[in-house]
Amino acid sequence: MHRELHFPTPIYIADIQDPTLNQELERDILNWMNQDKGVVRTNVKGWHSHTNMQDLPEYKRLVSMLYAAQKTIYDQEHLDSEPFLGNMWANINPPGSMNRAHIHPNSLWSGVYYVKASENSGQLKIEDPKSVALMVRPRMKQGKPPRRLWREDNYEPKAGRLIMFPSWLSHFVKPNSDGKTIAGNINFKKILKNEKEDEKEEDDEPKTRLEQMAKLKYDPITD
């Protein structure tokens, strides 16, 4: 008997090799927090910036890296369209804070880039998107089951790590029990080829920009 596996949920992870990027991001995000009380979305006891981070000049290097990573994902996912960074924001989670479970409607890919993190500072938890699988949860044998049988998974925050996933995937951030976590959060929309960019994209054509950004180097974590 042979086994076939269908309908996987892709999670893309990359460790960004840029020694000064996080230092600059930490400085700029902390300054932002000190000047702006932020907004309340899924954040509990943590700071959530406004969602125009991608438009601010001090985050241009981060935006460039994200487009380069997203170009790789689009190639891997066989997508005949161009990514467009619809909105981006920063979270600062001190001890005791968390983010409630949520998805990102009207987006294609979402993710998080960790600027600063320590052990036990709030895992990213993802959950099985197949809601019909919850109809029955049979008792399993002792021991750790193979990954294909998992119904949830947890990712430790790590400075310099980018995690991208489909926007329909339910996820949340567990309570932080240690040091401060600083992260940038991302929503990529879909733009079809030859489709006009919205008013936020002024003179830049996405294809030209993507070709430039794709030259940036990062080391993806393979399966």
Task: Write a structural description.
It is a single chain. It is built from three helices and twelve strands. With 223 residues, the chain is an alpha+beta fold. It has a single domain (12-128, 153-220), classed as Jelly Rolls, CATH 2.60.120. The strands form two sheets. Strands 3-4-11-6-9-1-12 form a seven-stranded antiparallel β-sheet. α2 packs across α3 (206-213). The longest helix is centred in the first third of the chain and has 17 residues, at 60-76. The protein is globular and about 60 Å long.
Entry summary:
The chain is 18% helix and 29% strand.
What is the count of helical runs? 3
The average pLDDT score comes to 88
CATH top level label: Mainly Beta
The helix-strand sequence is: EHEEHEEEEEEEEHE
Beta-strand proportion:
25-35%
Structural class: alpha+beta
Number of strand elements: 12
Please name the CATH architecture: Sandwich
- Provide the helix percentage: 10-25%
- Please summarize the sheet with the most strands: 7 strands, antiparallel
Return residue spans where pLDDT drops below 50 for at least 5 consecutive residues.
Answer: 196-223
**How many distinct domains?**
1
What is CATH's topology name? Jelly Rolls
**Euclidean distance between termini CA atoms:** 25 Å
Short descriptors:
Jelly Rolls; 12 strands; 223 residues; disordered C terminus; single chain; alpha+beta
